[in-house]
Transcriptional regulator GlxA family with amidase domain
Amino acid sequence: MSAVLGLTDLFVTADRLACGRLGATKPLLRVSHLAPAPDGEAVETVLDMHPDGEGRPDVIILPPSLGDPPLASGPPSGAGLGSLLDWLRERHADGTILASVCAGAFLLAETGLLAGRTATTHWIYAEPFAARFPAVHVDAGKLLIDDGDIVTAGGLMAWTDLGLHLLDRLLDSAAMFETARLLVVDPPGREQRYYTAFSPRLDHGDGPILKVQRWLRENGTRAITVGDMAARAGLEERTFLRRFSAATGLRPIEYCQHLRIGKARELLENTNTAIDRIGWDVGYGDPASFRKLFLKLTGLTPGAYRRRFGAFHGDTRDGDRACPRSPVSGGADAAAISPEAGRGPYSRRPIVNRDAAA
């Protein structure tokens, strides 16, 4: 509900600002809330900001959920799932853009419209989503994927990114930026992989591989060879490689890289240890190699990651230099955080009357 109501506030605010900026006398955006009818045979409007208006929605947003993703065998909110899916397909065929946030991607994928496309959802749902919808390419590192007629957003609070992105499409970039400033939220541009924690597969049932995984959890920052892992599993090396990849979805070297970078993220978040020292502590003697791998797996340099998530903010830039001690707060470390660079000059596009339904 926070996403539905938050999107409503965002669109209403944007409409008010755009009307004032352009001198419009009629609303530029119309927001409706839709829900499956109790009989499950239709979709009904439960709220309409401008009930005298006509036409179909230009965008329908399937919101996130705090519960489990909707099941193909069970109806959402007591309604018939088949009728809802048929209705979504019909709207899409009529030209309506379909969008989802977080677990809403499961319902969107049930329509079959995501087959052969790339989509995102919350990173904790990436594996179950991929298993349930093998025809969809899941890129959970992205917070927002715009495929033209279908737009998917990642984790729960990605509704802010989706809402601002839709403002850019439905109105113009000026409307998007002025709404972002007023609501004090960042314009689109984040990536979900900034926030993603490595969560290895542990439900595969391969005992020897689980034994190695537990061992790596404690010793993964040490110089460990594939031979060491195979010996720990009690398997021949080629057999170990095949079974490890099948069980975890990663090669052993990739798995260890994720563990090491995960440990580095913890150190960047919770200490003011120099970045090169952190790289050394998690097993990388070459600072350049550590930084390159960190950027590849997280989408941020170590310094940018610390500035965004660190409790100490021990680096003022992507280097090794710790910031000077502050003369206040008992000498605690302090650093100024510069906002990320925004987009280019506003693009001016004609504004048309648009309906949006959440």
Q: What stands out?
A: Residues 2-22 form the longest helix (21 residues).
